[in-house]
Amino acid sequence: MKLKLFTVIVLLTILFSCNKKNKASENLKERVNGYTISGTIPDIPDSTLVYLSKPVGGTQTSWIINNSFEFQGSEDEPTIAYLVIEGYRNGGFAPVWLENTDITINANKNAVKNADIIGSPTQKEQDVFNKRVDKISNEQVKLYSLMGNDQLQPQLRDSILIAIDSLEKQRITVSKDFIKEFPKSYVSTNILALSKMIWNKQDIRDSYALLSEEIKNSKQGKTIAYFLSLPDKPEIGQKYVDFMQADQNGNEVKLSDIKGKYILVEFWSSWCVPCRKSNPKLVENYRQYKDQGFEIIGVSLDEDKKAWIKAIKDDDLPWTQVSDLKGFNNEAALIYGVNAIPDNFIIDSEGVIVARTLRGILLEDKLKELFN
Q1: Residue 351 buriedness (CB in 10 A; 0-12 / 13-18 / 19+)
Q2: What is the C-alpha separation between 231 and 201, in angstroms, rounded?
Q3: Which range marks the domain in which residue 19 is found?
Q4: Residue 234 maps to a domain
Q5: Is residue 239 one of the residues assigned to a domain?
Q6: Are residues 143 and 189 in the same domain?
Q7: End-to-end C-alpha distance for the chain, whole angstroms
Q8: Which of 229, 261, 290 is the last residue of a domain?
Q9: Which terminal residue of the chain, N or C, has fewer Cβ atoms less than 10 Å from its own Cβ?
Q10: pLDDT, tens digit (0-9, with 9 covering 90-100), for 211-245
């Protein structure tokens, strides 16, 4: 389930992460040769906030005045951003390609994801892709909503999972075909960037090879190339892959520096609600088994260092913490295929991964098995 939800989680993470928010100010209006976004949303109160969030580069904000809003800026290449309205997040979010041209957005407050966006050449290519996958996406959403029913019979649940898997395979096929057809499109790099933790790594490599040199040298193209250069994800029963990142004091720490009979590598972040809720119990587990050789290293997928440090203090986390402050592009997360948080894995004293993605009672049971 985590694997299939990667795209949605990553996008929501982008939207609601602790990126620095830049007010729509006079400074933006001073920029020339950039983009101007003129948007309309009927029947919405004045002073409602609108967010335009980029995966890297922060979040702009604007305010609704007379059912209208505006953003201005400039980009050195087409860049994906996501539009969302404060207080109307159930309407979803719209992918907006920022290019240095005039862009118009006509949206419905209750269905932002279906906004009509005109003006950007790359946006037209995004529209082509959206039309090809919309039916698949809608069916996936329906099936995921059914999975939320606690009374679902096991046999029916298994059937739904099979159907979800089939739809995901269809989506992957459509995506690969789009990349073949549009090797010069920035949309193709965005598809690969969102899929790098879902697809087989060789499939990512094959699709990346089809891209034009210009697209390979784009910001997202270079990100994909970096991902492909990393070691392959280790599986349970295999040796761990070492990594090094800075702790909250700026000291470089390697995973191999952590010594213990069993080491839990915990992927989390300050903005992850399930992570924060599970921390008190994790602290209990740590104190219960520490004297028997249990150690933890936390790997944060934060981007905001102050928020990360505050969360460590507020949750009173006593174990080693590291982060490269790159969000879901955290190098360790990329190596280990972490596509949603919280996530974790356990390494034994021989450096072998013995368990993965254990939460709550499953983690407690595993610790009892290992230490008793």
Answers
A1: middle
A2: 10
A3: 6-119
A4: no
A5: no
A6: yes
A7: 31
A8: 229
A9: C
A10: 999 999 999 999 999 999 999 889 999 999 999 99
Interacting residues of 1 by C-beta distance below 8 A, sequence separation 6+: 147
Residues 61-79 have pLDDT tens digits of 999 999 999 999 999 999 9
Cβ neighbours of 62 (radius 10 Å): 21
- Secondary-structure breakdown of the chain: helix, strand, coil percentages, each rounded to the nearest 5: 45, 20, 35
Q: How far apart are CA 11 and CA 16, in angstroms?
A: 9
Same domain, 183 and 283: no
- pLDDT tens digit sequence for 343-362: 999 999 999 999 999 988 99
Cα separation of 249 and 195, whole Å?
33
CA distance 72 to 30: 9
- pLDDT tens string 157-214: 888 889 988 999 999 999 999 999 999 999 999 999 989 888 889 999 999 999 999 9
Given 89, 119, 149, which residue is the final one in a domain?
119
| CA dihedral sign of residues 164, 165, 166, 168 | positive
Domain count, the chain: 3
User: 41 burial class (0-12, 13-18, 19+ CB within 10 angstroms)?
Assistant: buried
- Taking the C-alpha atoms of residue 116 and residue 98, their distance in angstroms, rounded to an integer, is 15
Structure tokens, 224? 């994909």
Q: pLDDT tens, 89-141?
A: 888 889 999 999 999 999 998 889 889 999 889 999 999 999 999 899 889 88
Tokens for 221?
């193209």
Residue 297 has pLDDT above 60, yes or no: yes
**252 exposed, middle or buried (CB, 10 Å; 0-12, 13-18, 19+)?**
exposed
Torsion of CA 267, 270, 271, 276, to 10 degrees: 80
| Same structural domain, 223 and 249 | no
Q: Is 125 helix (H, G, I), strand (E, B) or coil?
A: helix
Residue 16 predicted with pLDDT over 60: no
**Could you tell me the two tokens for 242?**
């070492």
Peptide bond into 342 cis (omega under 30): yes
Whether residues 115 and 141 share a domain: the answer is no
pLDDT at 342: 93
